[in-house]
# Entry
Amino acid sequence: MAPVRRCLLVLPLLVLPACGDDAPPVSRAAPTPDASAPAFPGDVDGDGEPDAVTVGEQISVQLSGDGRTVTAAVLADTPPVAAGAEDVDRDGRAEVFVRTARGSSTTFLTPYRWDGTTFAPLLLDGQPARLGIGGSATHGEGFSCTEDGRLVVRTALRQDTGSWDLSTTTYEVAGHALTGVDRRDEAGVAEDDPRVGGSYLVDCRSVGEGE
# Structure
């Protein structure tokens, strides 16, 4: 009789953040990452082929176009994790999103860009951008990538009356900076308005909160 082979199926554990207010933490040197973390593909140089992206104390990208490896330092408050790649500004090159902070209920991502010469984080107000996802019962943060190459950041803040104040800011990528081109604020939004729930989410194709 042939021997019977038995296999063990291991399923990933999904950990949901707890609710609670949190403020964006102060950047400091990234902790030592898990050396076993796998690389993931993203077309960073825009040649139509995936590039190997590895995230640790620095981001390393092996460009498929010419074989070079480009790097950028990471400032993070938690072990940095790759959170996806997406061509935000529609220039043919994907930005790499890295989880650089995580509070009790909010995750923060920093996008990194290769412009053909320099690989570096996108800056917002002179500092590496931290784009929030999630929130608590009283505030929400989220962002989306548009088809016309812009990044839209949304926030929601609950008032004592039970209504919400919403803020939507649209940015363009200019070099390695995010430049604001439009801002819209609205007060007194009903709690069941779908825009409130949308303010907690990321809508940028493959970009998520990281594993």
DSSP finds one helix and 16 strands in the chain. Residues 76-203 form one domain. The radius of gyration is 19 Å. The CA atoms of residues 11 and 211 lie 13 Å apart.
